[in-house]
């Protein structure tokens, strides 16, 4: 397949790396220049072109710009009716993308995570897309949303990722400062948090509740820290923050 990227940034670069060995031809936009050059230097099947050059060379075009710049960029570009477009961007609906890329078809909105570069990423998709299943399903989990509202709820919920990472970083720094071995501290906490969550089959219900139950030794370290965090309002703040993400003005 001939795949184009407009907006060769953090997430688009990870997407390319994730499927670059699958026999496709990639044309990536010259912005970001360093990222585009790095991809072209690393892979024989990646070429750099102008935005219009990307479109002209591709069957499928991924949009990896930031949502706020996309309308101004896309209005000056010409798509073909035989093309399909996938948006990686937050902030523009499928209908808005469709208007901006006509006469090409807006195939799907797609939210991957940077570890798609290695596989194993959940990928939020709306609507269900045979194209995304074919391109990414072999090494990632494509989760298709039934409607735009569900997509937007999942989009808010995925924001949990970086606060969780921040907590791990704070605890890792705390541990490393005490032991004098920050690298070992980070390795331990990555294994601790990451290993358990996917150890059970993904279709098994109630895994998190069971794990919390298993970590509830009365007066144990886990029980005490969990209660402390609850008393400090962390879980209430999380719900309030998720609700806030869903309000149009973010208030
Ligand atoms: N980061 C992530 O993990 C994820 C991000 N997203 C979403 O994807 C979108 C991009 O995010 P991210 O990759 O982090 O952002 P980046 O800033 O890393 O990437 C945006 C890219 O767009 C390029 N760009 C800017 N203007 C133009 C233009 N006129 N023509 C072509 N390209 C242009 C930028 O180039 P330059 O550097 O030269 O300005 C940059 O390479 C956002 O909407 C984000 O919400 C979705 C899933 C995950
Ligand atoms: O959270 C965001 O705004 C986007 C989607 C995933 C990463 N960045």
Overview in brief:
The chain has 251 residues and is an alpha/beta fold.
Q: Can you walk through the features of this model?
A:
Helices cover 49% and strands 15% of the residues. The chain has 251 residues and is α/β, with parallel strands linked by helices. The chain has two domains: 2-146, 3-Layer(aba) Sandwich (Rossmann fold), CATH 3.40.50; 160-246, no CATH class. Strands 3-2-1-4-5-6-7-8 form an eight-stranded mixed beta sheet, with helices on both faces. Strand 7 (122-126), helix 6 (130-136) and strand 8 form a beta-alpha-beta unit. The longest helix is centred in the C-terminal third of the chain and has 19 residues, at 161-179. Bound molecules: NADPH dihydro-nicotinamide-adenine-dinucleotide phosphate and (2S)-3,4-dihydro-2H-pyrrole-2-carboxylic acid. Residues 90, 111, 158-159 line the site of (2S)-3,4-dihydro-2H-pyrrole-2-carboxylic acid. (2S)-3,4-dihydro-2H-pyrrole-2-carboxylic acid binds at residues 90, 111, 158-159.
Domain count: the total is 2
CATH superfamily of the largest domain: NAD(P)-binding Rossmann-like Domain
CATH architecture label name of the largest domain: 3-Layer(aba) Sandwich
Low-confidence blocks of residues: none
User: Largest sheet, order of strands side by side?
Assistant: 3-2-1-4-5-6-7-8
Calculate Rg over CA atoms: 21 Å
The largest sheet, given as strand count, sense and whether it forms a barrel, is: 8 strands, mixed
Number of helices: 12
Q: What's the CATH class label of the largest domain? A: Alpha Beta
Question: What is the N-to-C succession of helices and strands?
Answer: EHEHEHEHEHEEHEHHHHHH
Domain Pyrroline-5-carboxylate reductase catalytic N-terminal: 2-91
Keywords: Oxidoreductase
Family: Belongs to the pyrroline-5-carboxylate reductase family.
Pfam families: F420_oxidored
